[in-house]
Every structure is written in C-alpha cells, then in structure tokens.
User: What shape does this take?
Amino acid sequence: QVRLVESGGGLVQTGDSLRLSCAASGLTFSIYNMGWFRQAPGKEREVVATINYSGTNTYYTDSVKGRFTISRNYAKHTMYLQMNSLKREDTAVYYCAVTGRSSYSPDDYDFWGQGTQVTVSS
Assistant: This one.
C-alpha cells in the first residue's frame, strides 16, 4: 500500500534551517504531484509548497516564498522541503501528500504522511 513517511522536523530557533524529507513507497513516484502542507494548533491545514510529477513546476504559498525550496529525488523516491530563515509562525506539524490532480487544496490529495513537528522558538 501507499506509504509516506516524513522526517527532519525538530526544535530550532528563529533564523535557523531545517530540511524535511518525505519517503514514498507503494506508488509510482514519477507520476504523482506532491505537496507539503502544515497545520498549526487551532488552524486549518494549509498548503506550503507543491511540485508536479516531473519536478518542472513548483508552487509556494506567499509566506514562504524565498525561504523554502521544494524538490524531489526520483532515484530515492523522496521529496524534500528545505526551510531557511525559519520564523516562529512556521511552527506547525508538516505533512507530505500526493495527488493525481493539479491542486493546492488538501481536499484533493489522496495519500498523506503522519506528519513531523517543526517548532521555531525565538
């Protein structure tokens, strides 16, 4: 079955960097669009960044543009999110997800990982 496993979260200070990884198995990695989402306490899950099946198109929500970079490695079946210049408002549980559609909406994503906590302290 499809399995997505996130890793790389942790507790960091403002201005630090983290790289999240999402290892995928049980699916044909190269045909799915993928995305990173996050959910902070008391808030709805929101899109952070997406990357299409070929890696040629990416999308970033405004609050992370210029600080975060999404990428994927086809040999390793892994997606990444490089997060630089972290801010307190980036604190959330980060999830990776896959979809066969072109969408930024969490509702359109078919499979999800369990999430990894990112906490940014000042």
In short: The two ends are 40 Å apart (CA to CA). The chain has no helices and eleven strands.
